[in-house]
Amino acid sequence: MRPEMTPEEHDKCASVLERVHDFLDAELSDTDGDVIRLHLNECEQCLDEYDTEQEIKQLVQRCCGGSAPDGLRDKVRTKLQQAQSSHREAAES
Fold first, then answer.
1. Is 27 helix (H, G, I), strand (E, B) or coil?
2. What is the C-alpha separation between 36 and 42, in angstroms, rounded?
3. What Å distances lie between residue 34 and 48, 57, 62, 71, 84, CA to CA?
4. Can you state the angle between helices 30-42 and 44-64, rounded to 10 degrees?
5. Are 49 and 14 in contact (CB under 8 A)?
């Protein structure tokens, strides 16, 4: 989330990110899913976080048959975020 966000924008992002796993698992109502989709289309930072979570979910499904062992999700998330940061820094150079 951007540091220059208003409190309302911050709350909206926090709300979306709290429900991103439910969205990925298609466990939200159509209306709630539409709200998340709209926000992701408008907020690049939340979309980046969504993309990271989606990559983790796909990787876990391929490698572990669906369930991640304890701590694996956090380790994978950290590595993906480091790789994304390196990629962004290289693109900005």
1. coil
2. 10
3. 18, 21, 28, 31, 27
4. 120
5. no
In total, the chain counts a number of residues equal to: 93
Has this prediction a pTM greater than 0.85?
no
The DSSP letter of residue 71 is: T
Domain boundaries along the sequence of the chain:
7-92
CB burial string 80-91: b at 16+ within 10 A, e below: beeeeeeeeeee
Q: What is the pLDDT of residues 9-66, one digit of tens each?
A: 889 999 999 999 899 989 999 999 999 999 999 999 999 999 999 988 888 788 776 6
